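help with this.
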Amino acid sequence: MGIIKRVILWCTCLGVVTLIGITIAAISLTIRPAAEYKSADVIVVFGAGMSPDGSLHAPSIRRVKRGVELFNAGKASKMHFTGGRAVPNGPSAGDQMAALAIKLGVPDTAITRETESLSTLQNALYSAPALTNTTSAILVTEGFHLPRAAVALLWAGGPSDLQLATSTQFRGGIKSSARMILREAAAWWFNTARAFGYTIGGWIGVSEDIRKGWLD
């Protein structure tokens, strides 16, 4: 077997294994009652997109509501929202999610925001300064996205004591969920390459501003 065929075979095998892993993770990460979580320093909610006018998409709304549920149950005294802008100079998902949480009763003084990120890696990296003095966190996003988001947060230096809270296991119906799982599988390897490039770039002296752009 030629080298090219071997590479294709290995890539295909890795892709299949990744798809299976994501599906199993999403199925196993069920929506647990808030009472089952131990107390943490902060609840971290990753954004899931919004319209240019600032209207949060349904997945983002569900993530916020899940985070607020945990906050109201006394599982943390702080919440952190992370998400950038759909259009330049527009409202940020971080701000819009925080505004929704405030409408749902969370005090503004209990909330921190990150408003510039455009990817899961940037969600994690740009949130790190706000999480500097925390040692434990509850991370909120969808089940299929939770493992990648958790790895990203740990890679960025986030709290090592990390609990995972599912807003929903999948997204939409069967076809929509299948598309999201395929996209998530590709994102795992794309993120791995970008994170590796970011780290290597730092070793050889590439400025942080340039390297952050690699994570969009």
In short: The mean pLDDT is 91. The CA atoms of residues 95 and 113 lie 6 Å apart. Strands lie at 42-46, 79-82, 111-114, 136-141, 161-166.
